[in-house]
Predict the 3D structure of the following.
Amino acid sequence: MGEDNDTGPFYMSGSHPSPRLDSVEAIAGHLDVLEGLDPRLAPVRAVAGVVSPRLNPSGFAGMAKVICGQQLSVASAGAIWGRFEALKGALEPEGFLALDETSIRATGFSGGKFRTVRTVAEAVLEGRLDFAHLETLPVAKAVQYLVAHKGIGPWTAEVYLMFCAGHADVFPAGDLALLKAVHHGLGLDARPAIGEMVDIAGAWAPHRSAAALLFWRYFAVMRDREGSLL
């Protein structure tokens, strides 16, 4: 990720009314500012239409849900998650560790995802992963804190910070849908590499989470219209 521009997860420039992107109105406020920072976003926003919040629980359950969704469609991830959360105790570290691997993998979790969630559960119980502490950290340090745990990569860390911890200035530059959407929406000659995407998104700080939500929505609309993006 690019340089942090914040002193904590809920910093916003000026007098912005809602640093947490928890309503359509709050996101719209961020997008209004973004259009001033980068006028290229105005036609993207016109196509995307209303951009709604995407909030998940924080803590162990939220991280497990993010891990569940890695490299899956929304529909597939939702089906697997529905079966997983129905397991007694699955949404608490102690309860998860009490379940056997066969039961968890029967919900659709891969072996790798099972091991990652188990690592998270063990780290929480041993005090090596404190989600309350995580929410006090600026984004770059929060990502470092999370990726120190085996199985958690930058995408997982950044998506958790956006959707579970409520950070307002995160852009998961390695997300394929975002890369495709930015390529198409900004009329770039080629799909940006991750490093290039980090640089592009840097201009949208400290509103990068709203920019990510905008391009995810744009991707969904254009996919439905055209069948796919490049």
